[in-house]
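Batch job 17 of 40 flagged for manual review because the log was empty.
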Amino acid sequence: MSTPDISALLLSIKDMKGEDLVTLLAAINSEMQTRYEDMKAKAINWEAPTDGAARRWLYKEAFYYLRDAKNNVWHIDTKTGGLGDWKGRFIPEEDRIDSDADES
């Protein structure tokens, strides 16, 4: 899906009425649902990396982190996309991140 010029898009939405507006909102809702389902599927199918690296991981369907095979979790550095600040250790049995765990 390409990104249209926002100004032109807003002007066209402003003039929409009735059925056209309902159709647009339904299309937006459908696209957002598809993107959400794709993200959810990727998170469920997360596999621990075997090369010692950390991989992007979606936690609680809301937060992206980097996680390695030892369940160490880091924030994603916004500038580099690499390891950011230490978040903690994920405990799969409890479905939580232990923020008090030491970085290893």
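Reviewer: the log was empty due to a logging misconfiguration, but the result itself is present. The mean pLDDT is 81. Unflagging and moving on to job 18.
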